[in-house]
Design brief:
The complex is a heterodimer of chains A (about 230) and B (about 160). Chain A is mainly alpha-helical and about 230 residues long. Chain A has one domain: Up-down Bundle (Four Helix Bundle (Hemerythrin (Met), subunit A)). Chain A contains eight helices and no strands. Chain A is elongated and about 70 Å long. With about 160 residues, chain B is mainly α. In chain B, α2 runs antiparallel to α4. The N and C termini of chain B lie far apart (about 75 Å). In chain B, about 50% of the residues lie in helices and about 5% in strands. In chain B, strands 1-2 form a two-stranded antiparallel ribbon. Classes of the chains: A mainly alpha (about 230), B mainly alpha (about 160).
């Protein structure tokens, strides 16, 4: 307990670890354990999605035409760029380059806010067209070419649930990256002397990117099941 | 200081890997390439070239495969799993191992059709997401606009 005797002394290596390798491994394995639970959290929704998508292919294709693949594509590129910035922020943290880390984290935050702004534009458009599932669900039937509106509602239910949960993760990411940035700004030794806290936040942010990598093609880029089978190509 | 079992699997230099910026740039550019590929692949109808009825699954398969490859690249390079200890690699793999396990619920979806169950609502029929054999319209394809009666079980069956 010699560390506790000198209260203001900062030790990168915590007393319960043998060495830095063991400490870093413990931190990173701990973060991955959390990410495993996140994978299963989202996985349940992807499973639900796959079951209904397989059952209502035609109606879901019709419903998916309401989504703008360009806006989704901009957000895909946006998250990819923010992931790149985050990865290089970790690199600057390894080099103990405080200014470099702060610049890149600011870039990540700007991307995350941009993502939410585009998501807000998309959501409000859906809400105005009464496409939000629930008692207010009253879409203009002429837009759906006679698709079963129950199935269309199911599509938008899962769209809002899955992209909404992802959006919550982006929001949490903003808070966590903001807190990390504040610690770097204040020069807290827990982040400036040890790159691993920055790495852990990075792992979380890359995970958020990975979820979107799947959400984008599944919701915005559906193939038309009717082409060639006489079902009508809208 | 004694080496721990955890660090025994690691290199002995004790430090961490600092990569060149070019590694991150190359990774980002590869991911951007795959992003363009997934958008381009969605514009082409691969499936119906092969099968008129079920061909569009080929497009789904391509889209998911590209997403899996992108995930693999993000995990290996951005998330540094390529340079992680064996324990780190194991835990990174674990999350993706559970996804196929979770998707085994599909077997329930498939076999449930052989198990007719009493109606849940006091209506003339049961409507369910699960396709039923009893009362099904011989698996006829439902055209857009046509009411889905495929999943209904007439009350008379009970």
């Amino acid at each position: 307990m010699s560390h506790a005797a000198h209260g203001d002394e900062f030790n990168v290596l915590k007393f319960q670890y043998e060495d830095m390798d063991q400490q870093n491994d413990s931190y990173i394995v701990g973060m991955w354990t959390f990410l495993v639970t996140e994978v299963m959290f989202f996985g349940m929704l992807f499973l639900t999605y796959s079951l209904y998508r397989a059952n209502y292919q035609n109606d879901w294709f019709t419903a998916h035409e309401q989504l703008d693949w360009k806006l989704g594509g901009i957000n895909t590129a946006n998250l990819l760029f923010s992931s790149f910035l985050m990865a290089t922020a970790v690199r600057q943290a390894q080099l103990k380059d405080r200014k470099g880390v702060l610049l890149r984290l600011a870039g990540v935050l700007a991307c995350a806010f941009g993502f939410l702004v585009i998501k807000y534009v998309e959501y409000s458009g859906k809400y105005e067209h009464h496409l939000f599932p629930g008692p207010g669900f009253a879409p203009d039937v002429t837009h759906f070419h006679g698709a079963n509106l129950d199935h269309v509602q199911l599509f938008f239910g899962l769209y809002f649930a899955m992209t909404g949960l992802h959006g919550v993760h982006v929001l949490v990411g903003i808070l966590v990256i903001g807190a990390l940035g504040l610690m770097w700004f204040k020069g807290k030794k827990i982040v400036t002397e040890d790159y691993v806290p920055t790495e852990l936040v990075g792992l979380y942010w890359h995970f958020v990117d990975i979820v979107w990598i799947f959400l984008y093609p599944l919701f915005y880029l559906m193939p038309n099941p009717s082409v060639g089978s006489g079902g009508g190509n809208h | 200081m004694a080496k721990s079992p955890l660090s025994a699997v690691h290199d002995d230099h004790g430090g961490h890997h600092i990569h060149n910026n070019s590694m991150y740039v190359k990774t980002a550019l590869t991911l951007a390439g795959f992003m363009i590929l997934t958008i381009a692949a969605a514009q082409i109808d691969f499936g119906h070239m092969i099968s008129k009825q079920y061909g569009y699954w080929i497009n789904n398969l391509i889209a998911v495969l590209i997403a899996v490859v992108k995930t693999y690249i993000v995990v290996l390079y951005f998330m540094h799993v390529k340079w992680a200890s064996s324990l780190g690699k194991l835990f990174a793999l674990l999350g993706f191992f559970f996804i196929p396990v979770l998707f085994s619920v599909w077997t329930d979806f498939y076999f449930r059709q052989h198990e007719p169950v009493a109606h849940w609502y006091n209506n003339d029929y049961v409507e369910s997401a699960t396709p039923r054999i009893i009362g099904a319209t011989d698996g006829a394809k439902i055209a857009p606009g046509e009411e889905n009666t495929q999943n209904r079980i007439p009350k008379s069956v009970w």
